[in-house]
């Protein structure tokens, strides 16, 4: 019989605050239905998954052949169960196979055909934040691609190490300025017992490498299997080999998979139909030196990649500066003709470095600490920023910090980031935070934005527009400067609530909080406003307050604390 165990554990701008509070909540509040396949002596992973989801859990024994899903409960099934019966659960439940890689004889992929996803983990140490991120992504409760699409420019750093472990000591430094991290599967080297290397690393070795990388970074992962013709090491004689690895990347929860355009359309179509919440980068590389951006083939290749791609990447080896201008003309045609998908276009080689500075979608960057560059002519983030500044494409800006930033060390952190990325900007610290002080600096010709602590009232007259969140919270702690040609627009924002929400979602999926009660302590409403907004964005309620009263637009979301009975309603998800 089943044994149930309780686990304890908009950016729209407006000109003035509105009485109606706009709170973007998690998409759907239904508890996900999860079936977990666990290995021998690994029952604890079922409890961990349930804890992250904020749900109950139970185990099904080998004799429970007629068991069925239980609403709001994570079901755990061991290897002893007749796994052929699991097929009937697919569709109504998300089937998740788990593999402990520090257990004896792990068998990664042994149940991939009967599951939707596979989670790879270690027990010593166990990274709960990695599990929370994995579950949030496969359940569609976070969307990294949507977040990156809002940025004016994105970059990726490629790990070109034969063993990811070699990158770990410097990973935080390597990834500064990157929006995603690429694992070059074809460059991994799996050692045989005799000391030689496999031509293609095994799926188990690749899974271990990917798990190690994901446990140490919060960046979205791009899973790449580059072929020999396109400067990689994966053999091209068996296209199904690429499918096997790329589909496994989807099951492992990779945010992006790099699908080369030469692969048969049948395989590309199949991957597109099975990608889940992963996104496809349709990739084309030409190393012959004969490709021309002015040829009809260029647009045909883009259209071919756009059929199944969420991003189309086209890269060519060039030998003249003129070919950079031809690429920019091609880019302008594509962007004006096809609003979707986004286009990433680059030229390789020393003559193509200009295009790396001008490209805005997933520009590959390198770093001096990497063992080799992933492609000819690749630049670091610092080199790209220096080039943009020298061409007048990145003018020097003054960034302002209001408050005791020097005393807390925050200013030093900001300056370190600016210097690491060779940004031309200057950080200006002003000890006092006031509307008058902000009104003076926003008129400075090279004003590039501001961070304000403590925050100022959302009614600041010096800002023509503020975000919905800032209006609802009633406070501005960030001023965002947006540039469009010679025009600059300023938007008052509140970033504190985003930090609070992100902290809450590091160890739990967003839906774990839905309908949960919360207790909020503060001495005044201004200290708690951002927290109330963050809690409501996760559909948390009721929210009991202690030490303050809420008078503003957030008052409809809170209830004054009454006594011990209210405390009993507050528990961890």
How would you characterize this protein structure?
The protein is an alpha/beta fold and 573 residues long. It is 29% helix and 23% strand. The chain has a nine-stranded parallel beta sheet with strand order 14-13-12-11-10-9-8-15-16. A seven-stranded mixed beta sheet has the order 2-20-22-21-19-17-18, sandwiched between helices. It has a six-stranded mixed beta sheet with strand order 1-4-5-3-6-7. Helix 16 packs across helix 17. It has 18 helices and 25 strands. GO terms for molecular function: 3-dehydroquinate dehydratase activity. InterPro entries: Aldolase_TIM (IPR013785), DHquinase_I (IPR001381), MurA_subfamily (IPR050068). This is Aldolase. It comes from Aureobasidium melanogenum.
Features:
7-stranded mixed β-sheet; 9-stranded parallel β-sheet; DHquinase_I; 573 residues; 3-dehydroquinate dehydratase activity; Aldolase; alpha/beta
Main sheet attributes: strand count, strand direction, barrel closure: 9 strands, parallel
Radius of gyration: 26 Å
Instruction: Please bin the fraction of helical residues.
Output: 25-40%
Which structural class best describes the helix and strand composition?
alpha/beta
Number of helices: 18
How many β-strand runs? 25
Strand content: 15-25%
Average predicted confidence as pLDDT: 89
Q: Please list the strands of the largest sheet in the order they lie side by side.
A: 14-13-12-11-10-9-8-15-16
Using the alpha-carbon principal axes, give the shape. Answer: globular
Indicate the low-confidence ranges by residue numbers. 1-21
Terminus-to-terminus distance:
26 Å
GO molecular function: 3-dehydroquinate dehydratase activity
InterPro entries: Aldolase_TIM, DHquinase_I, MurA_subfamily
Pfam families: DHquinase_I (PF01487)
Protein name: Aldolase
């Amino acid at each position: 019989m089943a044994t149930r165990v309780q686990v304890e554990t908009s950016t729209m701008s407006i000109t003035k605050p509105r009485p109606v509070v706009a709170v973007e909540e998690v998409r759907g509040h239904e508890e996900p239905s999860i079936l977990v396949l666990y290995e021998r002596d690994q029952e604890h992973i079922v409890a961990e998954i349930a804890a992250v989801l904020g749900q109950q859990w139970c185990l099904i024994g080998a004799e429970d052949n007629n068991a069925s899903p239980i609403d709001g409960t994570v079901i755990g099934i061991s290897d002893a169960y007749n796994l052929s019966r699991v097929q009937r659960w697919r569709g109504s439940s998300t089937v998740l196979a788990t593999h402990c890689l520090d257990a004896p004889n792990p068998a990664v992929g042994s149940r991939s055909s009967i599951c939707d996803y596979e989670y790879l983990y270690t027990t010593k140490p166990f990274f709960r934040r990695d599990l929370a991120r994995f579950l949030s992504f496969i359940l569609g409760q976070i969307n990294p691609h949507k977040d990156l699409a809002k940025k004016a420019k994105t970059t990726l750093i490629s790990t070109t190490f034969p063993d990811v472990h070699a990158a770990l000591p410097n990973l935080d430094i390597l990834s500064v300025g990157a929006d995603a991290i690429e694992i070059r599967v074809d460059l991994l080297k799996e050692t045989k017992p005799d000391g030689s290397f496999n031509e293609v690393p095994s799926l188990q070795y690749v899974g271990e490498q990917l798990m190690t990388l994901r446990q140490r970074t919060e960046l979205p992962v791009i899973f790449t299997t580059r072929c020999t013709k396109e400067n990689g090491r994966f053999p091209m004689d068996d296209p199904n080999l690429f499918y096997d690895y790329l589909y496994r990347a989807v099951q492992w929860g990779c945010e992006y998979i790099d699908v080369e355009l030469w692969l048969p359309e049948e395989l590309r179509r199949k991957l597109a139909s099975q990608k889940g919440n992963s996104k496809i980068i349709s990739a084309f590389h030409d190393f012959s030196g004969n490709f021309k951006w002015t040829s009809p083939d260029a647009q045909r290749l883009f259209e071919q990649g756009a059929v199944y791609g969420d991003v189309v990447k086209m890269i060519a080896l060039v030998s003249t500066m003129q070919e950079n201008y031809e690429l920019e003309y091609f880019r302008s045609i594509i962007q004006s003709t096809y609003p979707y998908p986004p286009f990433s276009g680059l030229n390789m080689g020393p003559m193509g470095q200009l295009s790396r500075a001008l490209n805005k979608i997933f520009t590959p960057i390198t770093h001096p600490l990497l063992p080799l560059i992933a492609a000819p002519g690749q630049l670091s983030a610092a080199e790209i920023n220096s080039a943009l500044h020298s061409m007048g494409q990145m003018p020097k800006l003054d960034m302002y910090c209001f408050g005791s930033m020097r005393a807390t060390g925050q200013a030093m952190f900001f300056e370190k980031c600016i210097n690491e990325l060779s940004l031309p900007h200057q950080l200006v610290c002003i000890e006092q935070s006031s509307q008058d002080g902000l009104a003076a600096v926003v008129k400075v010709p090279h004003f590039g934005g501001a961070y304000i602590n403590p925050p100022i009232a959302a009614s600041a007259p010096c800002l023509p527009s503020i975000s919905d969140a800032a209006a609802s919270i009633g406070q501005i702690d960030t001023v965002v400067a947006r540039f469009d040609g010679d025009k600059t627009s300023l938007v008052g924002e509140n970033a504190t609530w985003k930090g609070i929400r992100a902290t809450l979602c590091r160890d739990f999926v967003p839906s774990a909080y839905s309908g949960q009660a919360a207790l909020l302590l503060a001495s005044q409403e201004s200290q708690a406003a951002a927290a109330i907004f963050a809690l409501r964005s996760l559909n948390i309620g009721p929210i009991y307050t202690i030490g303050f009263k809420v008078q503003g637009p957030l008052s409809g979301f809170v209830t004054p604390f009454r006594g011990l009975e209210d405390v009993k309603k507050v528990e961890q998800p």
